[in-house]
Amino acid sequence: MQNIIILDDMSYMRYRVKDLLEEKDIKVYEASTSFEFFNKLYEKKDNIDLIILELGLTREDGFEVVEKIREKNVDIPIVILTKVNTRDAFAKVIQEGISDYILKPFDNKVLLDRIVKTIKESKGGKEQVSTEKESKVQKIYINEDNENTNEVKEEVVKEKEIIDLNVKEEELPEEFKIYFVDELNKAKTDNTKVSSVIFTLIKNTDEEEKIDVKESYITLTDIFYKGIKDIFKGPNFITKHGLLTFVGVLPNCDEDKVEDMKNKIQEKYKMLSLIYPQLSQYHVGYGNVTYPVDGDTVETLLDKLTDKMRENIK
């Protein structure tokens, strides 16, 4: 049985969600305040598969609740189910790496399908990462003292740094971090460069506006992802990061090659915009980092990449 915790101060809404999900054998724990929510989350966190959260709480700030969840490094997907229907609200929580954003009023089938899909994707990702980490995480040794060395032996741990991927930058996809660290190790060993690029579809307006994310944002994310995947052929790597945002790894790629990649993405965007006119309401914002120009440790590079992502979404 899957387990969900919902924070919403409207009892009828909690009842409706609980009634809907328990018909599908999904256990729902209810909370009407953040105090109650965090107590239950602490009690049940090893068994919770999904968090459902209302941003527009009557007496509390739902955005602060999201931030506190992330500060606690809780590795549980979050679905926003809210009456808050503004672009700023959506952009703000996207920075925190939420899994989905669903507006009230909602269709029962749509809500159920999206929740079940999010749980399945999360469980599948964790199982894959767990298997990969057994074989990979123990190999992540980063030489901090001799950048030009041609041999970095895995068994020699002295003067090297072991990175715990569960702690660092939880908002970035795990599969991205694993691949990025592996390629960074190779770049250090071979004295080459490696880059990472993050890009976001940003709406062409500065005005506060109403949005409908129930279908459009998910659809646009899928359309754009399918359209650009062929640009990132191996050994390059690309993955979705929430809604409208994508992050990639570019081995043996310097700053000039990153610009070439951006141009290819832009060309693909223009072509897709002709096929899907809704894309023309957006532009692509980019951020990128390159080792060793922007830093020589995983922490430094991922911090800079995350900062650039946040700048893009502002």
From TrEMBL:
Cited InterPro entries: CheY-like_superfamily, Sig_transdc_resp-reg_receiver, WalR-like
Single annotated GO MF: transcription cis-regulatory region binding
Gene Ontology CC annotations of this record: cytosol; protein-DNA complex
Annotated protein name in UniProt: Stage 0 sporulation protein A homolog
One Pfam family it belongs to: Response_reg
Keywords linked to the UniProt accession: DNA-binding, Phosphoprotein, Transcription, Transcription regulation, Two-component regulatory system
Ranges of residues in domain Response regulatory: 3-119
GO BP terms: regulation of DNA-templated transcription
Chain's role: May play the central regulatory role in sporulation. It may be an element of the effector pathway responsible for the activation of sporulation genes in response to nutritional stress. Spo0A may act in concert with spo0H (a sigma factor) to control the expression of some genes that are critical to the sporulation process.
The keyword DNA-binding is assigned to this record: yes
